[in-house]
Design goal:
Elements (H helix, E strand, L loop, with lengths): L1 H6 L6 E6 L6 H13 L4 E5 L4 H5 L10 E5 L20 H9 L7 E6 L1 H5 L4 H13 L3 E9 L5 H10 L2 E7 L6 E8 L5 E10 L5 E5 L4 H12 L14 H9 L8 H8 L30
Parallel strand pairs: 1-5, 1-6, 2-3, 2-4, 4-5
Antiparallel strand pairs: 6-7, 7-8, 8-9
Helix pairs in contact: 6-7
Main location: cytoplasm
Pathway: tRNA modification; 5-methoxycarbonylmethyl-2-thiouridine-tRNA biosynthesis
Protein name: Elongator complex protein 5
Length: 296
């Protein structure tokens, strides 16, 4: 699944790469950039955490002219006026205008490196609104953001993940040459797909993926749960033999009418609808007309 997401980043999507200090997601971020450039798409990088040389390292040199790096490193807050794009300009208006000012501007890939720095200096709700506006604005095809989840409260991480159409969470693996990626993808129809894979990023920003094998102990545990019979230790029998089951199916239930009984009950008969009443000896019945004093 991870390769499919990278090779064909969906239009209008928001792809979130979630990492921690124990395992970086920057390699996968670079794979997204490299794949988009090879498809001939323009890529705009808001680089708050890494210099342009590091972002471009390993990227296909024949496509690098389509990479537009907006310098936020090493002065993301604009204290020394050394950055062309600062955190306070992270608004839909500024970013949209930034892309429109690019020569031969067209729907582009927006890469935010990283969202953590933006979230630490803005209201998370405002940032989510900005991302949503950018997705619907028309000048941005796909947004790809890197988030250091261990720098934020779980509530903040949760609302950003909820906004994303695809979340890739990376974690270390027992094999030092690989890391583990858990990809959760939500389709436009609302279907959610999830898969765990081992991955490795080469120096030329090429991704190799290996499916995570099932653990034998875990499979056995699931089998044991499914085979457990809660009625095995009872002092009485809850199961039916084949003969008992057939006999039970032949028993007519009292509240189920056969077709013949339904027809008999619904068939009209002579005199139906008439009310016959025979007075009782104890009935208080007055033969005089109670309204005989009215001259009508």
């Amino acid at each position: 699944m991870l390769l499919d997401v990278i090779q064909g980043a969906e239009a209008g999507g928001f792809i979130l790469i979630q990492d921690t200090v124990s395992c970086t997601g920057r390699g996968i971020l670079k794979c997204f950039i490299n794949a988009a450039l090879k498809r001939g798409e323009d890529v705009h990088v808001l680089g708050f955490e890494s210099p342009e040389t590091e972002v471009c390292a390993g990227v296909d040199s024949s496509c690098v002219q389509k990479l537009h790096f907006h310098k936020g490193f090493p002065d993301p807050l604009g204290w020394t006026c050394r950055s062309s794009f600062t955190v306070d300009r992270f608004t839909s208006q500024h970013i949209t205008q930034l892309i429109k000012d690019t020569e031969h501007a067209k729907a582009s890939i927006l890469v935010v490196d990283s969202l953590s720095l933006v979230l630490r200096h803005h209201d998370p709700v405002v940032i989510c609104q900005t991302l949503q506006e950018l997705r619907k604005g028309g000048v941005i095809k796909t947004i790809i953001g890197l988030l250091h989840s261990d720098l934020h409260q779980q509530g903040v991480v949760g609302i950003v993940c909820h906004l994303a159409s695809t979340v890739i969470s990376v974690a270390p693996a027992s094999n030092e040459r690989h890391a583990l990626a858990k990809t959760t993808r939500r389709t436009k129809s609302g279907k959610v797909m999830q898969e765990e894979e081992y991955f490795n990023v080469s120096e030329d920003a090429t991704l190799s993926v290996q499916a995570k094998p099932h653990q034998p102990g875990q499979v056995q545990k699931e089998a044991n749960v499914s085979e457990a019979d809660p009625t095995s230790n009872l002092t009485f029998n809850l199961h039916l033999s084949e003969e008992e089951r057939k006999a039970k199916e032949k028993v007519a239930l009292p509240f189920v009418f056969s077709q013949e009984k339904k027809s008999a009950l619904l068939r009209p008969t002579p005199g139906s609808g008439r009310i016959m009443y025979e007075p009782d000896a104890n009935d208080d019945f007055d033969e005089e007309d109670p309204d005989d004093d009215l001259d009508v």
